[in-house]
C-alpha cells in the first residue's frame, strides 16, 4: 500500500504553500478577466475585427450626432 498521510514521511515535500493574499487577489482578478473575455467573444472567429467595427460604428454615430444639431444635412421644409 502507498503512503497517503504526511505524517508517514515523504509527503511533506508535496505540500503547496498558499501565496500571500495580494498575489492571490491578483491571480483571481486575472483569471476573472480571462473568463470574461472568453465569454464575450464566444463564437467569434476574429474578435479584433469585431472591436474595430464597433469603434467605427461609434465614430459614425458620434459624427452624426455632432452634425445634426447644427442644421446642415437634415431635411428642409419647403412651402410653395
TrEMBL record:
InterPro entries assigned: SVIP, SVIP_metazoa
Pfam families reported in the protein's UniProt record: SVIP (PF15811)
Disordered, as annotated region: 1-80
Protein keywords: Lipoprotein, Myristate, Palmitate
GO BP annotation list: negative regulation of ERAD pathway; negative regulation of retrograde protein transport, ER to cytosol; negative regulation of VCP-NPL4-UFD1 AAA ATPase complex assembly; positive regulation of autophagy
GO annotations of cellular component type: endoplasmic reticulum membrane
Basic and acidic residues bias locations: 21-40, 48-62
Coiled coil: none
Bias type Gly residues, positions: 70-80
Designated name of the protein: Small VCP/p97-interacting protein
Amino acid at each position: 500500500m502507498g503512503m497517503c498521510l504526511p505524517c508517514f514521511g515523504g509527503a511533506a515535500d508535496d505540500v503547496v504553500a498558499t501565496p500571500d493574499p495580494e498575489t492571490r487577489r491578483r491571480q483571481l482578478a486575472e483569471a476573472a478577466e480571462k473568463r470574461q473575455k472568453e465569454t464575450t467573444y464566444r463564437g467569434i472567429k476574429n474578435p479584433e475585427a469585431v472591436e474595430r467595427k464597433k469603434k467605427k460604428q461609434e465614430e459614425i454615430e458620434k459624427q452624426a450626432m455632432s452634425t445634426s444639431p447644427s442644421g446642415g444635412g437634415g431635411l428642409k421644409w419647403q412651402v410653395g
